[in-house]
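User: Hi! I'm working on a homework problem where we have to compare a predicted structure to a textbook description. Could you give me the structure for the chain below?
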Amino acid sequence: MKFKAKQIAEILEGQVIGDANVEVDRLSKIEEGTQGSLTFLANPKYTSYIYSTNASICIVGEDFEAQEEIKTTLIKVAQPYEAFSKLLEYYNQVKLSKSGIEEPNYIDSSASYGEDVYIGAFAYLGKNVKLGNNVKIYPHVYIGDNVEIGNNSIVFAGSKIYSETLIGEESVIHGGCIIGADGFGFSPDENGVYKKVPQIGNVIIEDHVDVGAGTTIDRATLGSTIIRKGVKLDNQIQIAHNVEIGEHTAIAAQTGIAGSTKIGKYGLIGGQVGIVGHIQIGDNVRIQAQTGIGRNVKDGEVLQGTPAINYGDFNKSYVHFKNLPDIVKNINKIEKQLKKDE
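Assistant: Happy to help. Predicted structure tokens:
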């Protein structure tokens, strides 16, 4: 899809300097700009590139004054970075503005959906599925029985949404996610043979939640695994049965959370964090990457290490970790000297 400079200026409430009819169909970095691309200049460190870029359109600040000849058409705005972000959002909306029902697919006769939905080819919608308005279901998505998905939510290609899952409004499930598979519930008998414990709960994902590609969220044994509103989950995260994640908490890739752990609001959890089951993690907690959490965590704690300790203490200790061979050598020298003195 192509846009003219004058159309972009109208969206951004900016002023065109140059060819108002020049067209672009892609975005680029200013130093990598090519004909037909749009870029922006917000950081003064990149100003030199505006004189050499081949981008067709560049968004700049209202106070920008060229010191040399410029080939690109300029769009002057009050805040270039914010304007470019607004344009990215608009571009994304246009790109994702699919609608209609593609063939082939399977939609059970008991399923229902609202207005302006998109259901891609090879999608499967089971019994009593309910989709809200403007929901987008991309190709090769499986949606099990009794699933409900709220208005304006998106499920990208290849995701599997198991039965009884509830997904709120304005949420995004990226490709390859598995939502609602059985939790890891097994009990050994007297002979040490594991017997499966039926997992009959569900998963609840509230409004404005983003779930990254390849992430898995297990259904509860009883009750619900709950992802509260505004939570942001990166790619390849494992969330076990009966976990609850509080509002507006963000979790980076490859983190694993064991069953029945409760995580508070407004937390930040780094990549490759491991969290044991059946513990409580408070609000506003910060957990650094590759940390192992094996205990309850109070509100506002900042943790690092395995097992996790206070972040400041970890950094102080790390100075000694690096020097440990020399410290041991010095201790051995002292011990030898003391033995001689005896």
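For your comparison, note the following. The domain at 3-95 is CATH 3.40.1390.10 (Udp-n-acetylmuramoylalanyl-d-glutamate--2,6- Diaminopimelate Ligase; Chain: A, domain 1). Residues 292 and 308 are 6 Å apart (CA to CA). Good luck with the assignment!
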